[in-house]
Automatic annotation (TrEMBL):
The UniProt record lists the keyword rRNA processing: no
Species, as recorded: Dongia sedimenti
Pfam families: ABC_tran (PF00005)
Top-level taxonomic group: Bacteria
GO molecular function: ATP binding
Similarity remark: Belongs to the ABC transporter superfamily.
Assigned keywords, A-Z: Amino-acid transport, ATP-binding, Nucleotide-binding, Transport
ABC transporter domain boundaries: 2-234
InterPro entries for this protein: AAA+_ATPase (IPR003593), ABC_transporter-like_ATP-bd (IPR003439), ABC_transporter-like_CS (IPR017871), BCAA_Transport_ATP-bd_LivF (IPR052156), P-loop_NTPase (IPR027417)
The protein's name: ABC transporter ATP-binding protein
Listed transmembrane segments: none
Length: 237
């Protein structure tokens, strides 16, 4: 469904992503792991058109999207929930959700989806008219995910969805990903919680210093203590 080939992304003269190739098949959950500064956020930002690629090719759902602007990529069904619970802080939960559907024209479908996601995230229903900045960290992350889902993605990329959240909320986020997969969503998840991410993923990639240093079957990766130790060190819980 998504095919990144030999991607290079630069900040000025610095190559943050160096020749990375990665694929996500329909229905898969793929985990993208690696230490701080490895280039994971840069890679997913480039994949959705937020950052330009200096070289390489991006294909999504049969089309070349390498040079497409971000809005057009979202409209095609490839959406990123960025790192750091980025919601519109001054807007209500309701407005955040509606804005998530900005690329859609089917009003009735949007209303149905709001109902659906309020059922999936009951806390957002309780806080429906509250401004987002008054929500707890976990609630804001739920809102960020729900807002992304409002664009009706075929493939959702989640950048560190569990970052800074209490263990109980982290567990809830991972359960949610399992539910979303059952509903047919394909996902790429960037995570520091390597063990948990590989626990729900089919395959995993490990990046270090801008490159993919390992890729493999998630169950085999999580069982390999040497691998986890070598590449992920303190990131392993
Ligand atoms: N806007 C920027 N300008 C210059 N350098 C940047 C910028 N954003 C990131 N970098 C650099 O690019 C490299 C990759 O950063 P990136 O945020 O993609 O890593 P990451 O794997 O997502 O890390 P983390 O797990 O800490 O979020 C780092 O060396 C970082 O300092």
């Amino acid at each position: 469904m998504l095919e990144l080939s030999n991607i290079v992304v630069q900040y000025g003269m610095v190559k943050a992503v160096r020749n990375v190739s990665l694929t996500v098949g329909k229905g898969e959950i793929v985990a993208l792991l690696g230490p701080n500064g490895a280039g994971k956020t840069t890679l997913v930002s480039a994949a959705v058109g937020i950052l330009p690629v200096a070289a390489g090719n991006i294909r999504f759902d049969g089309a070349d999207i390498t040079k497409r602007p971000a809005e057009s990529v979202v409209a095609m069904g490839l959406t990123l929930t960025p790192e750091g619970r980025r919601v519109f802080a001054e807007l209500s939960v309701a407005d955040n959700l509606t804005l998530g559907a900005a690329t859609r024209k089917d009003r009735a479908g949007v209303a149905e989806d709001i109902d659906r996601y309020l059922k999936m995230f009951p806390i957002l229903g309780e806080r429906y008219h509250q401004v987002a900045k008054t929500l707890s960290g976990g609630e804001q992350q739920m809102l960020a995910v729900a807002r992304s889902l409002m664009s009706r993605p075929k493939l959702l990329m989640l950048d560190e969805p569990s970052l800074g959240l209490a263990p109980r909320i982290v567990e809830r986020i991972f359960e949610l990903m399992i539910d979303l997969r059952k509903s047919g969503l394909t996902m790429l998840v960037v995570e520091q919680n390597a063990t948990e991410a590989l626990g729900i993923a089919d395959r995993g990639y490990i990046m270090a210093s801008g490159q993919v240093v390992y890729e493999g079957n998630a169950a085999e990766m999580v069982d390999s203590e040497d691998l986890m130790e070598a590449y992920l060190g303190a990131g392993v819980h």
